[in-house]
Every structure is written in C-alpha cells, then in structure tokens.
Amino acid sequence: QTYAPKLLLLDISDISCIRDVAKEILNCYGCVDILINNASMKVKGAVQSISLELDKKIMDANYFGPITLTKAILPSMISRRTGQIVLINSIQGKIGIPFRAAYAASKHAAVGFFDCLRAEMEEFDISVSTVNPTFICSYHQPAPGNWEASIWK
C-alpha cells in the first residue's frame, strides 16, 4: 500500500514530545518498517568552556533523543517480528578528538546502546545498524568565542 507523506516536526532534544510524535506516526501509518535516527547536534570547545547545561543538551539530542524514539517504535516492530533500525552516528562515536568531548561522549553512548540493542533484537528478526561516517564538510562557520554559534543542528 502507498501512503501520502506526512511532515512531522520534532526537536529530538526535547525528550518530552518524542513519545507523542511516535504515537502520531503509528496512529497514522500503523507501523514503522525502517527507523533511521539521523538527527544530531554538535558543539566545539574546550571542556572547561562548555557548560554542563550544554553537555546535557548535546546528550539529549544525540543519545536520549534517538533511544527515546527507538523505544517508542520498538514494541510495534517486536509484535510484528520485523523491522530495521539505523543509527547514523559519527566516527567520533569510536574515537575522541580534542575540543569535541560532549559530542564524542554522546556518540559513544549511542553506539553502546545500539550495539546492545542489536544483540537483543536478533531473536525478533529486527535488524539494528550503526553507520559511523568520518568527518563531513560543513559550511557553518561560528564566530570565534561564541559557543552558542558553534552548535550545529
């Protein structure tokens, strides 16, 4: 069956609204065959210059957001015993580099979660993949010393 596309806006760092969006998707389409977690937020700066508040926002967007959405969709996949879950992550989920501590930590956490999920979902014939591309070129150039401008969404 073919479905008309539906646009739903979601701030993946706003954990409180993710379950409602997932419910709306499931109500509209009945199921999700493939879930691609591709949203991300990154920040560049020395550890001592990045606030704990910003560390938490990065963790919400890059770790808690994808796992919250995945957990909301997962019961439907398990009951149907089929589905694919993909995490588009980063090479920084495997290695850390200077001035990217919050970002790398969030990406490491996501890899750990989805690696465990892959093992757990094997019995339900649900495929879980992580893609860790190397560095990408961005045209975003923040102003020097402005950490808020260094957030890439």
TrEMBL record:
One Gene Ontology MF term: oxidoreductase activity, acting on the CH-OH group of donors, NAD or NADP as acceptor
Highest taxon of the lineage: Eukaryota
Alphabetical GO biological process terms: intracellular calcium ion homeostasis
Record SUPFAM superfamilies: NAD(P)-binding Rossmann-fold domains
Entries under InterPro entries matching the protein: NAD(P)-bd_dom_sf, Sc_DH/Rdtase_CS, SDR_fam, SDR_family_member_7C
Keywords of this entry: NAD, NADP, Oxidoreductase, Signal
Family: Belongs to the short-chain dehydrogenases/reductases (SDR) family.
Stated name of the protein: Dehydrogenase/reductase SDR family member 7C
Organism whose genome encodes this protein: Ptilorrhoa leucosticta
